[in-house]
Predict the 3D structure of the following.
Amino acid sequence: MTSITTLTKSEFGADLFGSEAHSSFQPSVRTTSTGQRGFVAPDYSISPHESIDEPSSSVLLNKSWFQWLGRSIFKHQARIQVLEAEVKAKSSKIKFLEVKIEALEDQAAADRAKAAEDRAKGAADRDQLMQLITRLQDDVARHYSRCTCGAS
């Protein structure tokens, strides 16, 4: 077990938050049966060896516990910042991909419209060609009918 030390309010705040302690938290100082003094948090005290999910009542808090808590808070804040940055990056990538998808959808719609226009033009060209072929066949048939009629 680590030794219990007496902390002043300013030391308490500096170890936990890097500044003065919040005025709403008023830890009390108690003396153990062995004569050691330390802070006691009235409702939610835990030691570094206990689970945060299972707080015990009236556990003497020592300086190393506050240092552990400060490091733990700092580590979790750093992890939160990393996760927020990842979310922001993925969100930016999602927005980029959404814009790209919209551009591809617009291009696909333009390509479909062009293809429909080309099919319509091709059908009109085919109709004109068929009319031309029919006229040429009629002209050739008339020309040969004149030639054969005049030769007999």
Observations:
- Residues 1-113 form one domain.
- The two ends are 134 Å apart (CA to CA).
